[in-house]
Every structure is written in C-alpha cells, then in structure tokens.
Amino acid sequence: MSGSQRSNAIRSVDTGRDPVVLETTTPETVEGRQDESAAPSQVQAPAKAKKRRSPILPVVALALLAGAAWYGYDWWTEGRFMVSTDDAYIGGDIAIISPKVGGYVEKVNVTNNQIVKAGDPLVTLDNGDYRIAAEQAEAQLKSQHLTLDRVDAQIKGAEASLLQAKAQKQATVASLDLAQLSYNRASGLQAQKVVSIADLDSAKMQLEQAQANVSAADANIAAAEAQIAVLKAQRAEAEAAIRSAELALEKARRDLGFTILKAPYDGVVGNLAVQTGDLVSAGKRLAALVPVSDLYIDANFKETQIAHLAPGSKVNIHIDAFDTEPLVGTVTSIAPASGAVFSMLPAENATGNFTKVVQRVPVRISLPKEALDTGKLRAGLSVVVDVDTRTAPAEHALAAK
C-alpha cells in the first residue's frame, strides 16, 4: 500500500468496545469547507434586495379605499332606499282550454306556439248530436206554443158560454117575474071566486118552472166560470211548459255552441294535447292559452323588507333572459298574507320544535306597456327587481311609516 493510500484509509481502533471509525482529511473535504465558509457572503446580496418596497401595495390600498368610499356614498344616496329581491318571476292569467261538452274532435285549428286573437276557433268537436238536440228542443217549443194557442181558444169559448148563460139567466129572471105576477093575480081572483082552482094551480106551476129555470141558469153560469178557471190553469201550465222548452232550447243551443272552443283573449297557444279523432270529455285539458299583453311580476319579498313597500312605488326590473336596459314597473298591490298562509299545507308551529323561518310576502308589479307590446316577454321568466321606496305616493308612504 502506498503512502497516499494509507493517508486515505479508514483506520479502525480496537479498544475492546465498538470500533470507532476515523475519517482522514482529504483535499475534497477542505474544498467543501471553503465553500461553506463562502456561502454567507453570497446570501447577503438578496437580503439587501428585499429591503426595497413594491409600489403595488399602496396602489391596491388606495383603490380599496376609493371603492369603499364610493360604495358608502352610493348606499347613502341610493342603496338605503332600494329594496331588492331575485325571487321574482313573470306571471300571467293562463287560460286552460277545456270543453264544456264531450264528443269526438272533428278538427284542431291551431298548433303549439301559435299566436291567436280573441274569438279564434281552437278546437272543433263533432256537433251532430248537439244539433239534433237543438232542433228537437225547438220543435218541442213550437208544440208548447200550439198547446197554449188551443187553451186560449178554449178560454174564449168558455167565456162566450158564460155570457150566454148570463143572458139566459136574465131571460129566466124575466119569466120568473111574469110567472110570479100571474100567480099573484090568479091567487087574488081565486079568492074572489073569479077564476077556478085549476087556473090557480096552472099559474103556480108556471111560477115554479120559472124558478127552476133561474136556478138552472145560475148553474150554467157557475159551470162556465169553473170551466174558465180550469182553462186558465191549463194556460198557466202551458206557459210554464213553454218557458221550460225555451230553457231546453237555450241549453241545446249553448251545448251546440260549446262544440267550438274559442280563444277567450289574445295570446299564444301552448301545451296542446289533442288531435283529430280524440274522444274528449267535459273538463279535459286540451291546451293552454298564455297572454302576451297582460303579464305581470310576482316578487316574493322577505318580511323584513316590506315595511316601506307601498303601491305606486317605481321598480327597476332586470330580466335574466334579456341583456337590455332595466324596465321600469310599478308596485300595484301587496298580498294580505305571506305565501305560507296560502300554501296547501300551512305550517303548524304550535306542536313540536319551532324553527323560525323568514317569511316571504308576494308583491304584484305591473310591467310597462311598451315592453308588453314587443311580444317577447314570457310567463315564468326570472327577474330581479329593485323597488325605490322614495317614489311611493304620499298617502301610501305615510301609511307605510
């Protein structure tokens, strides 16, 4: 082994304990130590560079301060008077097109998304049975009118009979008076023995016959009056039958008219669910008609926001579907109760645990006419509304306070 090899060798000393390894000094270790001693001087240069301040931080701080000042000014001048919500939607009084009578569909006159005018036919049902029913009701009405005419003729005949009976009574009364006079005369003469008893009996018989004729005349008058009363009752029945026939005819004509389903107002047809040949029953939903010029907004404000809301306040309306300038609407009414009160299953807080939930109150907002006239608005679109409480009419503003 050479001298250099011995200087680089690792010596092991046996001391009776664990062997101790001794590392000899080499040129490489000396260079490493020199590099470590030189490292601190090289690190000092970046430390001096960190002492320089960046201009970005003051600019950011100034921008934040300016933004906070602008926000505070905007809130003080505008924001504190605005009440906003995004729980708002465009609504409309959608008409459900349903037949009032059943039958087979003869023709569907419209398609989905078609614009229609008030009175336009939408669906036509087969009207054969209803047309026959209307004609039958009309014939029944004519028959009742004929019955009434016949009863009127009978009443006129009975009234004539009554007049005749009264005339006959007058004649019998005159005969009775004459018979009474003859009997009185014969009775006086018989007392004087001027006439015979046979003549007196004959006068008495004529008197009794005249009395019987008067009684018969009275009976004829009573019978004629009773007949007239019966006929008048029949006439009242005929009039009632005519009225019933008129109502039956009116119903038959209405049912016949109901075979044509017409648009109740201007709008757009949607959700069409019928085709030619379908058998439909009364009340079945065939289509929906959505108005395009009579839309509104229902906005649900939190109960903590409605203190200063009042009808007449101006509203800025942002429609999510259109990237346009906000529309200006008007608060028309505020619901008399929260939405939870009108729900199908209102909350019952008297039982069980109670968790307070902020309630929402529906507020109706009108849309400007120029926006409705475009025909672009659709029921169900989401909107964001900002109510300016400063614009409420004076009387409503005082009431809100």
TrEMBL record:
One Gene Ontology CC term in the entry: macrolide transmembrane transporter complex
Coiled-coil ranges per UniProt: 134-168, 200-255
Keyword Acetylation included in the entry's annotation: no
Lineage: Bacteria, Pseudomonadati, Pseudomonadota, Alphaproteobacteria, Hyphomicrobiales
The entry's keywords: Coiled coil, Membrane, Transmembrane, Transmembrane helix
Protein name listed in UniProt: Membrane fusion protein (Multidrug efflux system)
Keyword Transmembrane helix: yes
Pfam families, per the entry: BSH_RND, HH_MFP_RND
